[in-house]
Design a protein that fits this description.
Strand order of the largest sheet: 8-9-10-11-12-13-14-15
CATH topology of the largest domain: TIM Barrel
Distance between the termini: 33 Å
Helix content: 40-55%
CATH class of the largest domain: Alpha Beta
Structural class: alpha/beta
Shape: globular
């Protein structure tokens, strides 16, 4: 039996037969060249066919999984629409006799070199991955090769790949896949996002698997640990029995946990914790309700804006109102636009930034593009009459930004009132993602109705570590005492001012972190839908006084290793 360590992209346990996924052979004879005009005709035809393929994938995925997944392919389509990109390839063809295929590869290599010289962050890595995916699609079409897809898989397949691009996973046979293992990829890669949304076990960053696993090998994927994954290959009879029992135990536990979905999330000693779901679409809300969601702590709205144009007020209103009605009185926290960073909106024609995660994103962009923001605010205020909608502003780093946003809410309300349109100003909150917001939590919670901590970005900014950079992934320490102290500071300030503090990042669904968060004074946890039953069960097993003891000790420790070692025995 061989074992391979990896990173947990999506938790679970599964077993099955290895399905080795390899991209099509794109080799060719570079000396077989037609006249430049013919090569450019071939190129333009390939661009057109590639665009049509991506459009079909986008529509299919948006319909089956929601707009937030379809936007991945819209981003790739914008590459094919970029006249400068196509012109660079055509110039290579004209420069000296070249096949269109050669010109595509040379331009891609030029961009790969350019990206390698830029700051290494998840935005640049993902843009390069998208460009790579697009160029390979164009090459395949130029060479007349059939697309190799995951659309048809044998039953109980565990997909093994060097790397999976968005187009590889989009049309995957979800009925027959049991899990994923990839050599490359990080925790924010597309395969990680897809696996979580489908509740499929997945390990990424698992070097060496392609060279040691062959088709139909027995693979057991153990991703119960929230950080470390283990891939077992061809276990012997005794080991296979143990692993099968582990898988059955995990399945049975999941079934038992699902029975908890309708129970109240209250500690043994009677302290209620609001438990909510993170969603990106109305379709996500329906899925979350199947796991027991009664409220939403984070509705990401940016995915409405990642198509070909900007959504109008009426389109946004219909989406927000539908979500509020489906929750039937449950709290619905809607985050205003968090465009920027790794989310590009073609219609806005935003300038490229060397470091987009420290650039024009979130509330900064909304305040700069006032009309865009006012359109969304009017839609939100109209939808607020249909339920308990609350509005949260992302990436706030000063009290002034919150006040400016609040003034625009009042301006939007005045415009609706002047037209006699029914509306309501909802409670306004702040998403605490920057150290500045944590330091100013006292001042912010005097004016905001609530705060919710986005721990993914908060960890990134507190520790100055790009969470998408595999080279420094060991420095992205989710259990760092510094992060817990920022959370403690925020929660204490909220309580002092009679407001509540929530957590809507990954940390909120981590079983080891939950007692610490509750003990620090966090009143609401918003988690991935599939984690709701498990989180309800855990909250009901906790005692608030013990949580406070655990939290006090955790924040007093010096290192993440110290915190983890303590929590292994304390939780």
């Amino acid at each position: 039996m061989k074992t391979f360590p990896g990173l947990t992209a999506s938790p679970g346990v599964c077993s099955g037969k290895a399905y080795i996924f390899k991209a099509p052979d794109l080799s060719y004879d570079p000396s077989r060249i037609e006249a430049p005009g013919e090569e450019k005709k071939r190129l333009n035809r390939a661009f057109g066919l590639a665009f049509e393929e991506l459009d079909r994938i986008k529509d299919s995925l948006s319909g089956s999984m929601g707009e937030e997944y379809g936007h991945i392919f819209r981003a790739q389509m914008t590459i094919l629409e970029d006249d400068d990109f196509r012109r660079e390839i055509e110039d290579k063809i004209d420069e000296s006799p070249r096949r269109a295929e050669t010109a595509v590869e040379e331009v891609y290599k030029m961009y790969a070199l350019l990206f390698s010289e830029m700051e290494d962050n998840s935005y640049n890595a993902q843009r390069l991955a998208d460009l790579n995916d697009v160029c390979k699609r164009v090459l395949r079409i130029l060479l007349g090769k059939e697309d190799v897809t995951l659309s048809v898989l044998p039953p109980e397949s565990v997909v093994i790949a060097e790397e999976l691009f968005p187009s590889d996973t989009a049309m995957m046979d979800r009925k027959n896949v049991r899990g994923f293992v990839t050599e490359k990829g990080g925790l924010t890669s597309h395969v990680a996002i897809l696996a979580k949304s489908l509740s499929l076990p997945a390990a990424v960053g698992t070097p060496g698997v392609m060279g040691h696993i062959v088709k139909d090998d027995t693979v057991v994927l153990d991703v119960r640990d929230y950080e470390k994954a283990v891939v077992y290959v061809n276990p012997d009879g005794e080991e296979q029995k143990k692993l099968a029992a582990l898988e059955e135990d995990y399945r049975r536990r999941r079934e038992e946990l699902l029975k908890m979905k309708d129970l109240e999330s209250v500690t043994k000693d009677g302290h209620a914790i609001t438990l909510s779901a993170n969603i990106g679409s109305v379709e996500d809300l329906v899925t979350a309700q199947g796991f027991g969601a009664k409220s939403v702590g984070l509705f990401r709205t940016e995915f409405l804006f990642l198509g070909g144009g900007l959504p109008q007020e009426e389109e946004q209103y219909q989406v927000y109102a539908e979500a509020a009605k489906k929750l039937a009185g449950g709290m619905l926290i809607i985050r205003t636009l968090d465009i920027g960073g790794d989310k590009e909106v073609k219609a806005l024609n935003l300038p490229k930034e060397e470091n987009p995660f420290l650039g024009l994103r979130g509330i900064r962009l909304c305040l700069k593009h006032e009309e865009l923001f006012l359109t969304q605010l009017r839609a939100l205020l109209r939808a607020a009459v249909h339920g308990d909608i609350r509005v949260m502003f992302p990436m706030v780093s000063s009290v002034l930004e919150f006040r400016q946003a609040r003034e625009l809410v009042e301006k939007a309300a005045a415009k609706l009132a002047a037209k006699g349109v029914e509306h309501k100003i909802p409670p306004l909150g702040v998403m605490v993602e920057t150290p500045a917001a944590a330091f100013l939590a006292d001042e912010l919670t005097r004016e905001a109705s609530f705060v919710s901590m986005g721990t993914n970005d908060l960890t990134q900014y507190v520790l100055s570590v790009d969470r998408g950079n595999e080279e420094i992934s060991s420095y992205y320490r989710t259990f760092s005492p510094a992060v817990f102290r920022a959370i403690a500071m925020t929660a204490r300030a909220a309580e002092k001012n009679g407001k509540w503090a929530g957590v809507c990042g990954e940390l909120g669904g981590n079983p080891q972190a939950i007692p610490v968060l509750i003990g620090l004074g966090v009143k609401e946890l918003s988690v991935t839908a599939s984690a709701l039953p498990q989180t309800i069960a855990q909250i009901r097993s906790l005692d608030m006084s013990r949580c406070r003891e655990i939290a006090e000790k955790a924040v007093s420790l010096a290192t993440e290793d110290d915190v983890k070692a303590y929590l292994r025995t304390a939780v």
